[in-house]
């Protein structure tokens, strides 16, 4: 029954799923107010009790759409329809949900996700053509609160959904244990990283990965150097720093390395970041954080979303050509208890 359990216990960023895409010529004309829209394709669950549950399925699907709209409010300056394959499963594996989006596999570079590229091009670049732009895996082993008032025995569905969608937007890392990248190329050789990764430094401000896409072997220790209230890794993008009084942003870097959680989240331990929606673990049962703070918005600006805001503006018209091989990666959010 727990078909996805092993999947989420893999020791690293999940193995890339290589998708061949067809060449795609997309012509997009802006006719309405700029906005993101979301299309969720629900895969039938094994036990019939996921997003397809006969009793709760409709409310669960509605809750996901509502959460996507809440996130979309920060991106009103962008126009794109984002498609996701949504998988339901049930496993007592410590994971609430996970999400990912493909990216080019180009050793020696920092790559946006398919979702990120699509948003930043206002829908003009769809790197994987008709395939879904992202994937969400939702664990219905837990008791989910779908409303604006989850009970003290429920996890906050909305908080978790916004968190997972943000990973697909490019808020995440390809840095694995030992400093290996997406393709697990040998330390000291070039690999593929996320845009987010290009801003990572050790606690002294020295880059983890150089401009040639090579992880600095002397910085491996930083990945697990996080302690209570002091992270081993910082995010040092200019906008994020500006939102944090000139200081780098503490990144989750516990010891031992936690595959799927380390480096891809704001530090759960640091008092600077431990109340963020982008922490690795849920903070509590019941209502949890549902909003993006100045630091998250700064990070989003640094990774390319320079117009992230709550204020609607008209967007541009784009015509672009794209044909690629895409790979999918996932990052997870763990439960607290
Ligand atoms: Zn996460």
Written description of the protein model:
There is one protein chain. This protein has 337 residues and is an alpha/beta fold. The chain has a domain at 5-172 and 306-334. The chain is 16% helix and 21% strand. It has 6 helices and 16 strands. The protein has helices spanning 5-9, 57-72, 114-120, 157-168, 238-242, 294-302, and strands at residues 19-20, 24-28, 36-43, 80-89, 95-103, 109-111, 134-139, 144-145, 155-156, 192-194, 200-202, 233-235, 249-251, 318-322, 325-328, 331-334. Strands 1, 3, 4, 5, 7, 15 and 16 form a 7-stranded mixed beta sheet that branches. A 3-stranded antiparallel beta sheet has the order 11-12-13, with no helix packed on it. Helix 2 (57-72) crosses helix 4 (157-168). Mean pLDDT is 86; it is low at 1-31 and 311-328. Bound molecules: zinc ion (ZN). Residues 163, 167, 265, 331-333 line the site of zinc ion.
Quantity of strands, as a count: 16
The share of residues in extended strands comes to: 15-25%
Q: Detail the poorly predicted runs.
A: 1-31, 311-328
Structural class: alpha/beta
Oligomer: single chain
Q: What ligand molecules are bound, each kind once?
A: zinc ion
Give a quick account of the main beta sheet: strands, pairing sense, barrel closure: 7 strands, mixed
* Radius of gyration from the alpha-carbon trace, in angstroms: 19 Å
The 3D shape can be described as globular
Task: Report the mean per-residue pLDDT as an integer.
Answer: 86
Order of helices and strands: HEEEHEEEHEEEHEEEHEHEEE
Number of helices: 6
Query: Distance between the terminal alpha carbons, to the nearest Å?
Result: 23 Å
